[in-house]
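Bench log. Compound arrived from synthesis this morning; before running ITC I wanted a structural hypothesis for how adenosine-5'-triphosphate sits in the protein. Inputs:
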Amino acid sequence: MSETGKGLATVDLCKSFGALSVANSINFNLDAGARHALIGPNGAGKTSFVNLVTGVLRPTSGRLMLDGQDITALPQAQRVKRGLVRTFQITALFRRLCVLENVALAIAERQGVGGDFLRPAGRHRAVIEEAYDVLEMLDLARDALRPITELAYGRQRMVEIAVSLALKPSVLLLDEPAAGVPPSESIMIVEAIERLPADIAVLFIEHDMELVFRVAQRITVLVQGSVLVEGKPADIAADPRVRQVYLGERKH
Ligand SMILES: Nc1ncnc2c1ncn2[C@@H]1O[C@H](COP(=O)(O)OP(=O)(O)OP(=O)(O)O)[C@@H](O)[C@H]1O
């Protein structure tokens, strides 16, 4: 994708904490509709990169482009309004409310009606219907009326994705969607990512290589704040440098 095209792009993005460079002139493109994984060893700068993209961190230099527009100076909330959404963390869910309520509240928030969404009745119904559609897409509808506290951990992480979808993202950042999820449940997360609407560009950070290689169409490998290599999964898996710094390391 070009710098002026659809999707997300970083241009010579740099971030340092004192002498430590966590983003070292990163030129990264996330095409519209992409399924792109960002991998790298511990401390490579993956979380810092997501924080730069969402606006939690300010770059030392460089630019961020969304759909061809410079968003480097935009605050976090404005980026979300433009469709750049990071998954909500479990800790941000209303734990005693049910799944449907959590998603409906996010939709109401997006529409600017917030806690008022129970009135008027017509709007209430539209919000609930939209929330149900999101739950059905993620195979969460059977848990719609259960409070978050009653769900297994993997299902709770699915609700994170559902709430994020309620914000109608064009770019969705998933920060370790399978972290802490037992292997028996992680297939659910894989299937959820596979079911996301094709027009959403998805960037995920993940340590679970099975998930990465099953879902990603492109992979970027970050090492010490720099992009080591970017390419198709088969090329990444075969790259001796990647094996050395990352895959090999994990095997041991
Ligand atoms: N606010 C900060 N101040 C100083 N150093 C920081 C700060 N945030 C992160 N770092 C350092 O920046 C480096 C990159 O950290 P980051 O969390 O981005 O890596 P990561 O690739 O996400 O690692 P992991 O896979 O372990 O989560 C680390 O050495 C970390 O200690």
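What the model suggests: The CA atoms of residues 174 and 204 lie 5 Å apart. The chain has a mean pLDDT of 90.
ITC booked for Thursday regardless.
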